[in-house]
């Protein structure tokens, strides 16, 4: 009879540390949260933390990387199933961004972590790498949906991707700061306006 594995895998451990860190960061702040508290919240020892991450900064970088990878994976899956822009946007609106992703459930913590990393200039290339990956994703979406619509965009796709990403980040921040005057669908309304300006509206 085969033995049942009871010890968590490395991925299981990392996922639990991500979830625990998100809770602790929200409760105590990123700067005030200790490695011991994060490990305890995940049900692990301090040694288990250090077997996965060298420092709290490395944990944060890994959480941001995991968030971007999960987001890109989910959105590319959507694009495979919905290759024209109206259908893709409808699917994107209903996508569960928080599934197995603590930063997807907490946009404010996500931004706080980005700013925390950005304070250290030597860490900014880590953020830049993920920003470029997000821009490429949006550029690919624009190129694919424009091609499938049979229309050529009047804007350079790379520049259009940068615009779309800036709109998303900007409206997310505005929504956090002033939800009363920033409607939940502000980003998608802006995308509709940009879509028409680019000449790739649905026929």
Provide structural commentary:
The chain has 203 residues and is mostly helical. 70% of the residues lie in helices and 0% in strands. It has two domains: 8-53, Orthogonal Bundle (Arc Repressor Mutant, subunit A), CATH 1.10.10.60; 60-197, Tetracycline Repressor, domain 2 (Orthogonal Bundle), CATH 1.10.357. The longest helix has 26 residues, at 56-81. It starts with 9 loop residues before the first helix and ends in a 6-residue tail after the last helix. Mean pLDDT is 87; it is low at 1-7.
| CATH fold-type name of the largest domain | Tetracycline Repressor, domain 2
Number of domains: 2
Distance between the termini: 62 Å
Q: Secondary-structure element sequence?
A: HHHHHHHHHH
Oligomer: single chain
Determine the number of helices (DSSP H or I, runs of at least 4 residues).
10
Rg value? 20 Å
Structural class by SSE content: mainly alpha
Major beta sheet summary: none
């Amino acid at each position: 009879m085969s033995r049942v594995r009871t010890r968590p895998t490395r991925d299981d451990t990392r996922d639990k540390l991500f979830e625990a860190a998100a809770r602790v960061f929200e409760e105590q702040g990123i700067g005030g949260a200790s490695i011991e508290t994060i490990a305890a919240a995940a049900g692990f020892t301090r040694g288990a933390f250090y077997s996965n991450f060298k420092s709290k900064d490395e944990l944060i970088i890994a959480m941001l990387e995991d968030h971007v990878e999960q987001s890109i994976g989910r959105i590319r899956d959507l694009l495979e199933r919905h290759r024209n822009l109206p259908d893709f946007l409808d699917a994107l609106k209903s996508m569960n961004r928080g599934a197995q992703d603590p930063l997807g459930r907490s946009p404010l913590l996500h931004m706080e972590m980005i700013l925390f990393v950005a304070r250290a200039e030597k860490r900014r290339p880590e953020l830049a790498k993920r920003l470029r990956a997000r821009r490429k994703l949006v550029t690919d979406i624009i190129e694919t949906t424009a091609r499938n619509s049979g229309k050529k965009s009047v804007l350079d796709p790379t520049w259009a991707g940068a615009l779309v990403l800036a709109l998303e980040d900007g409206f997310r921040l505005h929504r956090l700061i002033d939800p009363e005057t920033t409607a939940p669908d502000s980003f998608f309304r802006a995308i509709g306006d940009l879509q028409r300006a680019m000449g790739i509206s649905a026929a």
